[in-house]
Amino acid sequence: MLVHLKNGGTSLVLRQVDDTFEIVHWGAALSEINEKSLAITGRAVMHGALDVNPGNLILREHSRGWIGHPALRGHRSGKSVANWFVCKNVDAKSDQATITFEDKTAGLEISIKYTLDAHGILKVLSKLTNIADGDYTLEHLLNWLPLAPQADEILDFYGHWTKERQPQRREIGFGLTSREGFEGRSGHDYTITQVALTKATNFSQGEAWSMGVAWSGNNIHHIEKLIDRSKSIGAGEYLLPGEVILAKGESYEAPAVIAAYSNSGLDGITNAHYAHIRARNIHPKRPRPLTLNMWEAVYFDHNFEKLSAMVEKAAEIGVERVVLDDGWFGARRN
Prior knowledge:
Order of helices and strands: EEEEEEEEEEEEEEEEEEEEHEHHE
Helix content: under 10%
CATH superfamily of the largest domain: alpha-galactosidase from lactobacil brevis
């Protein structure tokens, strides 16, 4: 069975392999496909390795021969650590697919929903449910996508106050490259997204693949390169020890992961995200109001007469909104 999501100049191709699914392609939009046309995507078998390459499995289970980081990690008091999930149901449309997996031995069910919008933004939602007696301790549930062989470099961001979002670009090395955030919020050093790109990619040209976690809590961004030179990108919530323990019938819904592909450089990634955000029903329809921020003008001296005079002057030049910054905090004066 093949599932081909195609929208916004991007394709995501999922293929059923026995009782599970692999991701065959994520990138440039493909024409009509079939099993024969996908034969070229098969991964080579290395000397001294397993006789069959497991492929880019959605859940990346070690029990199926995957040697990289798994999508799911957890246990039942030290047991049920190596899962074997079997496809239970597939609900697929042209731009959306939900696949449900079940591991009866471990007593777990996972559903993963892929949605590819008109701008090429791929949204991935995962849900884990404990369907057996006893508690299940979740360590992580990450969403992964394969990268094309030509993706040679990583771009992410670092920074501090007054110097946020500084780009750093380097070669993808063997093993796991991680950016993890433990602040519980999107701080100055938060990478926002992690990008894989070719050596020739710049702002307006070349291919790029991005992935970010759509929330501001503790987070993980990974890029992994295995010894067979296959590469993948993954992201999700960073869970503290014991933070999520599921009783029977309870579920954990991972924060959405947002991914994008571009063949027009980094600007293509940016434009896809802008279009995605602006297409929301809740996105403001009127022009953004001209805003005056009072912070540098008065700091902590919030004198009503002084502020009133400034507001009147601001109104004369067309200011529509006034913001009182940190100075209004009652207990902070420096």
